[in-house]
Amino acid sequence: MAFFVPAVRLGAGHLRANVSNGLQYLENQEYILYTTFSVGLGCTFLCLNCVLLYTLRSKPVFRETSRYILLYNLLFADTAHLALSLLLYILAVSRLMLTMSVCGLLTMFSIYVESISPLTLAVMSVERYVAVCFPLRHADLVTIRKTGAAIAAVWTVCSLNIVIRVLILVWRPDYELNEKMKDFCSKEAMFLTPMTKHFDEAYSSFVFLFGGLAIVFSYVGVTLVARSASSDKASVRKAGKTVLLHFFQLVLILTFTLNSIILTAFARQLDRKTLVRLSIIIFVCLNLFPRCLSALIYGLRDQTLRPALLNNIGCQLRCLVGPNKTKFRKRT
To answer: Which pLDDT score, from 0 to 100, does residue 229 have?
Structure first.
């Protein structure tokens, strides 16, 4: 979990001090502008994801198709992670210090839902590979029951990640549940031991290796079918582009895990004010944007989902505008 200024992934105490002190070099108007932009953009993505979640539960075709079930699982994890990111971001900007127990609960749940997305992307890519390369057997190979089992496996693997982190946290000699934190609530503030750093590197490598190989294998298979297909080439090429977008989304999500390393490398070369701005760019591009890509990839490109999504967005906008203003516009 990373946040701009104090809430970015701060891997070292020196970096935390630099970024925190960087606030003093920002003018009040610029600080308010950055905060408003980040929170406003995050809330916009959050609303879009919520509308798509509602859309995926609004019709039987979405509830009974494996592709959309996987999408719902991915979107649910992205939405939960986005909501927690904004919550911790606002707490950090407000300079509210939490207790170790509350911060630990928030960061654990955030890490949990964050780690679900890369593995789900890999499963979705394999599903597209089966749909394109084995169209006649797709209904037998990809059933709702098997889809549920795949989702359960993803959540189980991610839960093991949390269990190991809890054990590492319990072994901390200075850990007390009711103690108030001396720094802003973040993943790095909770896990300061070298063991956690090694575990993060190992787990991120595993996820990238597994997810990357699954997506690359799926993309190569879909591409080969696209070249040899005599009919319906447009559908096959669209599936290939979807898998490629999954890989792009996976790279963005896993690059975000290197946030601390990136900021630490630039901390010695940039001034504090520029470092704060860089942290904002990383927060928006590598944390907020990838969590909205699912809605853009499927919500706007899927011929079945797009009409329902646009209709629900229109309904939400009409509710925000109000019935009186809507009637007035119709008359004019």
So the answer is: 63
CA–CA distance, 109 with 99 (Å, rounded to integer): 16
Quote the tokens at residue 81. Answer: 């992670």
Contacts of 2 (CB under 8 A, 6+ apart): 8, 9, 85, 186, 187, 256, 259, 279, 282, 283, 286, 287
Provide the CB-side half-sphere exposure for 104 (13 A, CA): 21
> Cβ(178)–Cβ(129) under 8 Å?
no
Q: What are the pLDDT digits (tens) for 125-135?
A: 898 888 888 88
Could you tell me which of 41, 75, 44, 42 has the C-alpha nearest to residue 305? Answer: 75
Question: Are 274 and 3 contacting, i.e. CB atoms less than 8 angstroms apart?
Answer: no
Distance from C-alpha of 130 to C-alpha of 134, rounded to nearest angstrom: 5
| Unique residue bearing structure tokens 């853009």 | 296
Question: What's this model's pTM, rounded to 2 decimal places?
Answer: 0.81
**Both tokens of residue 186?**
């973040």
Question: Other C-beta atoms within 10 Å of 81: how many?
Answer: 24
Sign of the Cα torsion 231, 235, 241, 247 reads: negative
The pLDDT assigned to 329 comes to 46
Q: Which residues pair with 180 in a beta bridge?
A: 99
Cross-strand partners of 106: none
The alpha helices in the chain, defined as continuous H runs, are 13-22, 28-56, 60-63, 66-93, 100-133, 138-141, 144-170, 187-190, 194-228, 233-255, 259-267, 272-282, 290-301, 305-321, 323-331
Overall average pLDDT of the 273-278 stretch? 74
Residue 27 amino acid letter? E
Neighbours of 286 (CB within 10 A): 21
HSE-up of residue 14 (Cα within 13 Å, Cβ side):
7
The CA angle 225-228-232, to the nearest 5 degrees, is 75
Closest by CA position to 88, among listed 23, 22, 10? 10
